[in-house]
Amino acid sequence: MRQLIRPLVFICLCAVLAACSNTRYLKPGQNLYTGAEIKINPDSSGKIDDQKDVKSALEEKTRPRPNKSILGLKFKLWVYNVAGEPKKPKGLKHWLRTKVGEPPVLLSDVKLKYNNDVLTSYLISQGYLQSEVTGDTVVKNRRAKAIYTALTGPRYKINSITFSKDSGNLANIINQNKDKTLLKAGDFYDLETYKNERIRIDNDLKEKGYFYFSPDYLILQVDSTIGKSLVNITIKVKDIAPDAGLKPYTINNINIYPTYSLRRDSVLRNLEPVKYNDFNIYDNRRTFKPWVFDRLVFFKKDELYNRKDHNQSLNRMVNIGVFQGVKAEFLPLDSFKNNQLDLNIYLTPLKKNSLSFSVTGTSKSNNFVGSEVKLTQTTRNLFRGAEQLDVSVSGGFETQVSGQSKGLNSYSFTTEGKLTFPRFIIPFFRFNSTNAFIPKTIVSASYQLLSRGSLYNLNSIKGEYGYNFKESKYKEHTFNPISINYVQPSKFDDPRKRDSLYRIGLRGALEKQFIIGSNYNFTYTNQMEEERRNNLYFNGSLETGGNVWGLFVGKDADGNKSFLKTPLTQFVRLETDLRNYYKLTRNVVWANRLNLGYGYAYGNSNTLPFVRQFFAGGSNDIRAFRARALGPGTYKISDTEFADQGGDIKAMLNTELRFKIVSVLHGAIFTDAGNIWLRKEDLGTPATDTEPATPGRPGSGFNFKNALSELAVGTGAGLRVDATIFVIRLDVAFPIRKPYLEPGKRWVIDQVDFGSSTWRKENLIYNIGIGYPF
Q1: Biggest CA pair distance of the chain
Q2: I need a surface site. Which of 485, 509, 554, 763 has the fewest CB within 10 A?
Q3: Closest to 632 measured CA to CA, from 643, 624, 640
Q4: CA-based angle 18:23:25, to the nearest 5?
């Protein structure tokens, strides 16, 4: 007990000394402002609903805010005071005082009347129509606080809502949609809801052609004299609303300027336009094929203006990727007395060709960390249909920073070409989408040479033809009906080297692989909505290999279906990745991930091809185990085996508490659990005339009854430098459950001993990464 008391006394003493040191720097007559205290109905025995939340909201609205504190200590103010007045506008003192420190917030900075009005206004907006707030100050030992007393009165509720009964078209539209009103009888009076109701009505009218209408033209009259803390609400259009805002407008001429610039403005306007459907296209250079604008502009001549077409047209023109400037101008024909609008669309194209150079950091699940240099040539509007061709060449260097092969260097050279069409190209079928996002057809081909030091080299050729479509800002679909991947390892003419690589478990990585099939990927995320307290991310993928092509290819001498003298890989692979990010406070996030994968191989294959297998362990996975060294199942790799253990089934759960420490420095504590398995246990292979024998892996097979008892569990902590544009991460973790131990002895949390160098050497795993693990 004494051991606990001494540190507590020391901390309290430091707090008192820090408080005293901050006030002794004040000038005579100055008092340090320490914050506001809110008292709600102090003389009443009854509490209001959600009193804690209302009190917190009122405190947040008081100004100024007091000096920031950490555990009750105003550290930044203390630094400001200790640094003193610098003699020069540079140096350590100046940096401490102006960058780290914070000047004192004084009682003289507090404006009681202003705060009284702000707090009273807020309470009225929440339905406390008879509320009143008065403020006062209390000073003690040169430290002052403001005390605000709020007398709220009763909170008013809505009794009835009445919409305007005028006979005009505008009033009819408002009444037709009154069932969508945000105002409900029985709800509390809420000013924010009233503002949103005006915006809702304005949106409805914009869809019916009322281009010049504004939410400000609506008035919500509130009658609070009916008694019983109830209000009647009447919604009507203001009498002073201008005539232009009270009538619908139709689209007259649609003029498109695809190569607009201020320098060419007068020249373009005097051109003879190309007439295509409802468009007048001013493009004497024939930069774009006219049908391109059918997919970009949703307006039609003589139809009513509506905001949906307006927004979708702008979004498409921005997202198509060939314009650097987009402007839509609506002009009334002759004067506001007419009810027609001319639409002028000004488009400034990007340069047709551009060259980009990038240097990126890489961090992979197998604990390879390195850098890549990439040069990309982009050609836009290749066939005058807003297509884009990207041709890139890249080279990279990586080194494995932890694991059994620590220090292993890897080199890669990649060349890739990608052609994107801003539309679906589907034989015998025409697809037209009407949302704000442009469907895309993507054709890509790439070649990669990968060298794993002295171990092996891989040549990989890949080609895909597919489609990308964003259903909404939350949902995205990618479907590649044709995906081809051919992997050719370097030949090992020396049988002794080949035998050595097989013995360390690299047979799967060194097999020829020919994968031809299809894949589909679906992504849902609302992470772009930062105001949400709870954000979700979901990714699901399905891939098939050899299913259709297996019907057409012949068999080789061994009876295997093959193509180009390479066995055809046949499999079905499914994977899901579900993530949840819950904001406990503004600077504390609880992040969770569930990752499940299942692969079924058949025909020529007993397991998934190596490049499609699941792996466990590493900096983005189960961090308490070395990269790709965990599993499969209860199997444990020997000291002579290479850490590249793959499986057909994967289950993983991560939970991580992330918090800001100071500035760009963040911290995390985490727990990871999971494992991989083979669908069928690996019994090994006997030696043949051409291939050496490979040992089996006992315990590697999946059994649903035993799966839970074969999960690995690890925990740890990490530091992250989060500078927004990049994140550098250092995590340290250790296992608390080892699946390869005997049943009943797999939990090893009781063996944790940070004081033992032997335990640290055998159990502590350090992971360096770029970006967050999930």
Answers
A1: 100
A2: 554
A3: 643
A4: 105
Confidence of residue 303 (pLDDT cuts 50, 70, 90): very high
CA 765 to CA 624: how far, in whole Å?
6
Q: Please provide the average confidence, as pLDDT, over all residues in the chain.
A: 87
Give the CATH number of the domain where residue 493 resides.
2.40.160.50
Examine the domain organization and report whether 266 and 322 are in the same domain: yes
Strands of 435-533 (E only): list them. Answer: 440-452, 456-470, 475-489, 513-525
Write out pLDDT tens, residues 403-421. Answer: 555 556 778 899 999 999 9
Q: Tell whether 213 and 254 lie within a shared domain.
A: no
- Mean predicted confidence (pLDDT) in 125-144: 94
The average pLDDT across 27-44 equals: 92
| Amino acid, res. 757 | S
Q: Which helix (H) or strand (E) holds 119?
A: helix 112-125
Claim to verify: residue 362 and residue 443 sit in the same structural domain:
yes
Q: Are residues 177 and 130 in the same domain?
A: no
Q: How many structural domains comprise the chain?
A: 4
Instruction: Enumerate the β-bridge partners of residue 662.
Output: 665
Strand 279-281 and strand 765-770: pairing?
unpaired
Q: How far apart, in Å, are the Cα atoms of 105 and each of 26, 37, 65?
A: 11, 16, 8
The answer on 161 and 106 residing in a single domain is no
E strand segments, 212-317: 218-223, 230-237, 250-257, 274-276, 279-281
- Tell me the residue range of the domain where 210 lies: 157-246
Same domain membership, residue 310 and residue 416: no
Distance of CA 21 to the CA centre of its chain: 45
342 and 396 both lie in a single domain: no
| 440 plus 519 within the same structural domain | yes
Q: How buried is residue 400: exposed, middle or buried, by Cβ count under 10 Å (0-12/13-18/19+)?
A: buried
Q: What is the CB-side half-sphere exposure of residue 408 using CA atoms within 13 A?
A: 19
- The pLDDT of 18-23, averaged and rounded, is 64
Listed residue (147, 145, 139) closest to 116, CA to CA:
147
Q: How far apart are CA 204 and CA 60, in angstroms?
A: 35
